[in-house]
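Quick log. Single chain, no ligands specified.
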Amino acid sequence: MFGPRQVRRLIFVCSALPCAAVVWAAAPPAIDAAFEKFWSARTPQDAAKAVEAVVRSGITFDEALARLKRGRTYAAQPKRGLVKLQRRAVAGDFFYDLNVPLNYDPARKYQVRVQLHGGVMRREASEPRAAGGRGGGATLEGAEQIYVMPVAWRDAPWWGRAQVENIDAILDSLKRTYNVDENRVVLAGVSDGATGLYYFAMRDTTPFASFLPLNGHMMVLANDRLGLDSELFPTNLLNKPLFIVNGGQDPLYPMRAVEPFIDHLKTSGVAVDYHPQPDAGHNTAWWPQVKDSFETFVRSHPRDPQPQTLTWEATDRDTPSRAHWIVIDKVSASAPAGQLSRPDLNVFSGPGPTAVSDGDDPFVEWPDGRPSGAWRAERWPSKPAGEWPWPAWPGWARDGRSAERRPSVPPSPSAGRRIRTRHGPSRTSISPRPVAESFATRAGSSSSARRSIAAWSAARSFAVRSRRGC
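-> predicted structure:
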């Protein structure tokens, strides 16, 4: 397939064509050649360069949209079975395997599962997955689908930007070669792979329909020794459903340690399908009994590419940060606190595991925070100016296009503090952000939805409804 930015740019530029008084008369071969170059682009950068040629070909908007909906024609004889591949990047050589059904039919769309392995810190260097040995084959094989099995190692763990870029690039290449159902791409992981999966869910939600952490624990990401390169916000988990499995006899992440946090996610509004295995250790011996429920969950939760409601938070270090049709471009000075979005998953109340000790209070810690901006948005049907269902708050300008709110008092500096997940009843922050940030965001893929909306967010997050023209 092709990158969403290239398609949005093509639609945006072509949308002016039917509005012009000039009737374009272009030979069909020129249009075909321009689109062929666009479809055959090997990277998003090449596809972006091909957009201008499509526009200059004189194609009408309706015809361009129809071609985009039809999509590309896929090769009749791509590689099938176990395919070993390699992607070269600045961070090193990223090896990965594909497992493609032997009866793959390019005329049919296929579900995809990206499977993240465990034991990351035991891998000292990048190396191909061992066939028939550790990490070989299609891990936890289930329904007929395309399996993507990337590799992580000590210097490129799942919980880092390099792997986010790597898996995004792998999926882009996969979609250009095989007929992928883009609304049925899921991310699953075991042990360290589950830890990395939580990182992806809080950083890169857009490509995936659901997240399936197995034998993992979200709070591993609170360990300072991991040296995370980004701030993480559990509130971002509200956007996609989770299928979670943990064992009662697991010496690393037993049910009794993870369940308070799973309950916290559930009660805060995250869609969680939890399958505890009381007699299981830190292994996947339970897979034959869980497989059907796992695959049923995947089938029942396709991705909504234009979700009605989104919640997304990012720091100034991670901009631009995207979640579907929301992009946080900028995080700036703090505004006064006092308006908190509920629920705020960054705040945890209740029992927690014992990790280290500070006097009489055992706790685990998350790194100090940076200023962040949070955005909770909801799509509304297009309405004439003056008929938006936005509340008439003082300071909002409503013209049917944009809205802006400015702080009524001077911004105050934001400050971070460490999270403390105490053993026993307490109120603690998983990722505290005592901030009220202003930021700009672009929403949507149509021309009306691409207009910038400046929003004022108060305290850690600020609830606001954002119109998306359709």
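DSSP finds eight helices and 18 strands in the chain.
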